[in-house]
C-alpha cells in the first residue's frame, strides 16, 4: 500500500512540475485606433525569440520559463 501511494504522489508531483514549466505569453496587437495589426513582428526583448501576428493580430510564445518579460512590437509600413 505504501509503495502504491508513494508512486501516485511521485507521479502527481512530476506532472505538476512539468505543467509549471510549459508557460506561454499571448495577446493581440492593435494600433492606437483599435485596428488589428497583421504581420507585425513581436519579440521578447533581450532574447532571440520572435513571432509574427496572424490575420487576427494574435501572437503566442510557448515554452517559457516563469519570470518577467518585456514584449516589443515592430512593424514597417
Automatic annotation (TrEMBL):
Alphabetical keyword list: Signal
Keyword Signal attributed: yes
InterPro entries linked: Carb-bd-like_fold
Signal sequence, renumbered to the chain: 1-19
Pfam family, any one: CarboxypepD_reg
Gene3D superfamilies named in the record: Carboxypeptidase-like, regulatory domain
Keyword Transmembrane tagged: no
The protein's name in its UniProt record: Carboxypeptidase-like regulatory domain-containing protein
Species, as recorded: Mucilaginibacter antarcticus
Amino acid at each position: 500500500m505504501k509503495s502504491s501511494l508513494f508512486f501516485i504522489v511521485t507521479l502527481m508531483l512530476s506532472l505538476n512540475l512539468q505543467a509549471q514549466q510549459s508557460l506561454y505569453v499571448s495577446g493581440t496587437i492593435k494600433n492606437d485606433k483599435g485596428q488589428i495589426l497583421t504581420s507585425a513582428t513581436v519579440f521578447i526583448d533581450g532574447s532571440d525569440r520572435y513571432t509574427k501576428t496572424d490575420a487576427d493580430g494574435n501572437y503566442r510564445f510557448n515554452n517559457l520559463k516563469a519570470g518577467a518579460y518585456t514584449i516589443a512590437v515592430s512593424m514597417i509600413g
